[in-house]
């Protein structure tokens, strides 16, 4: 008679491993289906005029990546401080927002802020100077970084390597949904938003729920203020969906989600139980 026990044991181990992985993913997302991070770049007026009030109205928190040299930071510093006090993260988007002017389509890059002309030491120093400024605003020492224009290299060198100990993680600009184990904390995926409808934004969230992954939104203008923009109605629809489904969706600033991911990546996987 055919011995089916080895096949049974193999199937049992596979199922146990799958369930253990599923449980670990759920724990990473605060015992919810997925994580959603709302990020807003460049420290522009609409962040304070439109976004912070919208988030506060539904008691959701986001991450605002501030350019230290932005006049909106200097002119409205008390408002940024109040936003941080309400739980929003003030992330680091570099002091001068340098982008690689040698790449195609980078006519907007000025000679003074051309990352391709920077040294690695200059890039690192400016990012750390911005951290000092942000700490003076919010008193926080743990935060995340976002690459200006998504540019990560200077002369083939990944400058963030010297900044790993300064941040919990860094956000990139490549779209994609990932499990905690798939995330690269030096270049977290994000979806750049420009003109999408509320339904399209919500559809991304539903995909994250189904795949039990982390979804990072990258916004610039919300209701204007930037060439990359989403209208207020679409943004409001997204927030309402997230609030209505908060029992299934963990919405938190990048620093909190990245900290959970780092903990999950550093802890050994739960061993499969033996029959």
TrEMBL record:
Signal peptide: 1-23
Domain NodB homology positions: 34-252
Gene3D superfamilies: Glycoside hydrolase/deacetylase (3.20.20.370)
GO molecular function terms listed in the Swiss-Prot or TrEMBL record: hydrolase activity, acting on carbon-nitrogen (but not peptide) bonds; sialate O-acetylesterase activity
Top-rank lineage group of the source organism: Bacteria
Keyword Transferase: no
Broad class of enzyme this protein falls into: hydrolase
PANTHER family according to UniProt: CHITOOLIGOSACCHARIDE DEACETYLASE, PTHR34216
Name this protein carries in UniProt: Sialate O-acetylesterase
Organism of derivation: Hymenobacter luteus
């Amino acid at each position: 008679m055919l011995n089916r026990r080895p096949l049974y044991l193999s199937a049992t181990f596979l199922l146990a491993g799958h369930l253990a992985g599923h449980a670990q993913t759920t724990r990473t997302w605060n015992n919810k289906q997925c994580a959603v991070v709302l990020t807003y770049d460049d420290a522009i007026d609409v962040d304070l005029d439109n976004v912070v009030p919208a988030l506060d109205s539904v008691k959701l928190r986001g991450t605002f990546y501030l350019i230290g040299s932005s006049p909106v930071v200097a002119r409205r510093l008390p408002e940024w401080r109040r936003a941080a006090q309400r739980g929003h993260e003030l992330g680091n988007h570099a002091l001068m927002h340098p982008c690689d002017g040698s790449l195609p389509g980078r006519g907007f890059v000025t000679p003074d802020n051309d990352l391709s002309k920077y040294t690695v030491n200059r890039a690192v120093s400016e990012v750390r100077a911005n951290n000092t400024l942000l700490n003076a605003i919010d008193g926080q020492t743990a935060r995340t970084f976002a690459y200006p224009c998504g540019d990560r290299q200077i002369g083939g060198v990944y400058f963030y390597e010297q900044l790993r100990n300064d941040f919990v993680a860094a956000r990139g600009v490549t779209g994609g949904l990932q499990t905690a184990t798939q995330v690269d904390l030096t270049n977290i995926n994000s979806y750049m938003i420009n003109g999408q409808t509320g339904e399209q934004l919500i559809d991304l969230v539903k995909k994250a729920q189904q795949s039990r992954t982390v979804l990072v939104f990258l916004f610039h203008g919300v209701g204007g203020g930037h060439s990359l923009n989403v209208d207020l109605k679409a943004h409001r629809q997204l927030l309402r969906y997230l609030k209505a489904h908060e029992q299934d969706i963990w919405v938190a600033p990048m620093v909190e989600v990245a900290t959970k991911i780092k903990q999950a990546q550093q802890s050994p996987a739960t061993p499969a139980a033996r029959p």
